[in-house]
Design brief:
There is one protein chain. The chain is an alpha/beta fold and 294 residues long. The chain has a single domain, classed as Spore Coat Polysaccharide Biosynthesis Protein SpsA, Chain A (Alpha-Beta Complex). It is 26% helix and 25% strand. The protein is built from seven helices and twelve strands. Strand 2, helix 2 and strand 3 form a beta-alpha-beta unit. Helix 1 packs parallel to helix 4. The longest helix has 16 residues.
Length: 294
């Protein structure tokens, strides 16, 4: 059994489609955020440290609303995603406004992690089972990269298209993961920007990944290659599913796929918020969570 398992929470994005700082939006009856429910589930699963990837300009607000409540329950640290945090020899092009995506976000924590760690989005609800299965994997001797897979049809929004990492899995190992945009329900069909047919049963990545620190060397090398190819584009993104897919395709790493029957939900659009509030209420009424949470 490992001594420490770290949760790395990506919470630096503004949420352009959502229209605000959705990581701090209140969805519980006592002002709880989705992050609060994720931390509750992570503590219960045995995580011992949490690192939040945020922007420096909302550090004080984040500590006040989120992390001050967890002092003494977790070891809490911060990493800061900065648009100018680039490898030597590169600079941010004039006119770029957003950081460089989830790959750069994870890389920003490179000096804080020396143990297995699990990455999640700060604005997604993954469920207690998801935290338990990935914590159990590492606590029981798992030493590979891993991911928790969800059914595609359980991860869509009723209010507009979304992006998901659509996966092909062979013998419980990840074969491919392709970041797929514009996924949207249309009657009995799921539309996408790719020339593929989807029925909703496909496993998808919701950015709940398990890694060892070896990931950071891969990220650095791939980020350099990305910047050489796409660094001049103002909206290009260095995305973790693309990095992982390349590692798998090049036989550099295997990714063990864990299954969760937990209900995923999140707030991509403002219209998703009432649905999330109702789902939290259902979980409270069924006894999964207490109210207030802490």
């Amino acid at each position: 059994m490992i001594n420490h398992l770290t949760l790395l929470v990506m919470a630096a994005g503004m949420g352009s489609r959502y229209g605000g700082l959705k990581q701090l939006d209140k969805v519980g009856p006592n002002g709880e955020t989705i992050i609060d429910y994720s931390l509750h589930d992570a503590i219960k699963a045995g995580f011992t440290k949490v690192i939040f990837i945020i922007r420096r300009d909302f550090e004080d607000q984040f500590k006040l609303q989120i992390t001050n409540k967890y002092l003494g329950k977790f070891a809490v640290e911060f990493a800061f995603q900065d648009i100018d945090d680039l490898p030597n020899g590169f600079s941010c092009p004039s006119g770029r406004e957003k950081p460089w995506g989830t790959g750069q976000a994870i890389l920003s924590a490179r000096n804080l992690i020396n143990e297995p760690f699990v990455v999640i989005n700060g604005d997604d609800y993954y469920g207690q089972e998801s935290f338990k299965v990935i914590a159990d994997y590492y606590n029981n001797g798992g030493a590979q990269f891993s991911m928790v897979a969800f059914r595609l049809d359980k991860t869509l929004s009723d209010f507009g298209p979304v992006t998901r990492g659509v996966c092909n899995v062979e013998n419980d190992k990840l074969d491919t993961v392709v970041e797929t945009e514009n996924l949207e329900k249309k009657g009995n069909y799921i539309l996408t920007n790719r020339d593929i047919t989807l029925d909703g049963s496909e496993p998808v990545s919701m950015n709940m990944w398990g890694f060892t620190p070896s990931l950071f060397n891969y990220l650095h090398e791939d980020f350099v290659n990305f910047l050489n190819d796409e660094g001049g584009e103002l909206k290009s993104e260095f995305l973790i599913p693309t990095v992982i897919n390349n590692l798998v395709q090049n036989n550099q790493e295997e990714v063990y796929v864990l299954r969760s029957n937990a209900s995923w939900f999140g707030v991509t659009y403002k219209e998703d918020k009432p649905f999330v509030i109702n789902k939290i209420q259902e979980l409270i009424h069924s006894g999964i969570y207490s109210s207030p949470l802490l």
